[in-house]
Amino acid sequence: MSLQTSLRQLLSILLPISITSLTYLYLYPIFCGCNFPPPASSPSSPPAILNTLRQHINIPLDPSHYTQIAPFRLLVLADPQLEGDTSLPNANDSLLNRLTTYREAVVSTDTWTDFLSAIRGSLLDTLLVDIPFAFSGARKRLDLFGNDFYLAHIYRSLHWWTKPTHVTVLGDLMGSQWVTDGEFEWRAWRFWNRVFGAGVRVDDEITVTGGEGVHGRDVKVEEVLLDSGSVRANSAVEAWKNRIINVAGNHDVGYAGDISEARMERFDRVFGRANWDIRFRYPAARDNLTTSPHGAGTITTTTSAAPTSPTDELSPSPSSTTTPSIHLVVLNSLILDTPALSPSIQSHTYDFLNDVIQQRSQPVEDRSSFTLLLTHLPLHKHQGVCFDGPFFSFYDNDDEKPPEGQGPRFKAGGLREQNHLSPHASQMGILQGLFGLSGDSNAPAKGKGRNGLVLTGHDHVGCDVLHFVNRSVTQDGAEGVLSPGWSWEAKRYPRHKSHSLPSLEEEEDDTPSIREVTLRSMMGEFGGNAGFLSLWFDSDPSVEEWRYEISTCRLGVQHIWWTIHVVGAVTAILVIISGVLSVWGWLVSSSPGGAVTESTAKGWKSGGAGLKKTSRGLLYRIITEWRHVGSRKNGRKKERTGKGGKAREEKE
Prior knowledge:
Residues 289-322, 630-652 are annotated as: Disordered. By secondary structure, the protein is an alpha/beta fold. It contains 17 helices and 19 strands.
């Protein structure tokens, strides 16, 4: 069997596999059902893929085959954790440096015995230790390079197919908070140029509410969620599609016990402020939910004098009670618990949170407002509810070896690590503070709080939880008399529950509650996950509040990405080799001078020696042809000589 025949048989297997797998990989959002849930979805609703397809292909469809597109569609990613040089072997331990060390050890020997011993030891170390170590380092470098493009493939494919209006990454953009400034800049470059190549940082003009000196001032940033048709509004639509809403994670800035001004400064400068909020207004919702399927308009920043009374702080403007809106809050929850290394950073974060609650949040009775919290640390929950249970650790000693020219990076007793927020920070700061939930039935809105959702990262496994008020708890009252009380509880979110079509039991349930979705990591080890949050306003007069649905999908572990590309590369190389052999054979068989010689044919058909024998056959043919040409020339010369002699004889 010839080499070309073998290649053709091999390609008949590899080529379909490669084409099929590459098609699946680059269109995986379609095959895996990665779509934003449509508004008012139900088991009888048309598949969500039809809504997504309508954004790519303008084809007329029966309205019964699709529903309207949600005006706010958030692509949610979590914990990419870009690693870097700190995960690679030390440069001093490179193979070249180790060989140099061995050479010096051999040269410095004084006796023949020491020389042989040094040679033997160097060879053994090189073969058994250094070469495997060098291969491991090279594999890690290749792994880091490929991991960037694996993550980029997730973002690029999902962004292209699902067409989100907004994108967020829920923290842990980096793999370590302890990296140097140079390493931080290098990983940041990879983040913006490889992983999120088309993404841009959210401008400081938009995140002004999280800036220094804003506390106590009525500073608000608002945008129109619907496209008004103007050129400026259309440009804002495109701008938000590419902005990446980055949340600070513990691997970016650290935990409270080691968060410093320097770390916060470099994160804010490169990825955007860690604390800020914005309100997206939805003016057309009151008239018609189907006015426009797209989002965003112009930015409006208002600044006025500080309120003169608590009543002014909490009283909304007339338009705020009639115009539905989404209040997006980005919060650095890593600094909420104590002890903190930097009291000033902690104070600034609490000031920001209080401003959001007192000045920029709507009353809890206003169901036309939806509060969406993006933060890194999950809220407190009991052991067993999620994969990670409550955990706190603290530094035992002060930093004994701080970097030159810098102060201690941590101090004894400082908060070193945590899995969740503390119960106090979760309940008083988030549940009761930001969302206004309460177990007191006499509280505003009967304690049901603001309509909203919490999105978190950190727990790489992911979790879906419902935080609720447990009113069945009893407490000891005065003189030992039992009086009804309440406490905060958390449980897994019921899979059957839907915020688009609530059941009768859910409508009658007045238990204050809020959902928290901890998104599974997008790292290859955890399957390359992503979330899709759809938000829309139900303008039914009997409802008039925001609804949401969230779904997830995954690409698969990074080995799938690697395998498909390796198989594709091998297939491409074999196709090229097969093509070269075909051209080579055609050139040989069609060369001038007659048919292919026997040796050439044997060299071509031998198969075992392949190109080598074919080349020998071709060379033999060239030499033979050259000899034939020489023989023909000599024959013609002799013929001319013979004719000349014969002519002379006749003349004589």
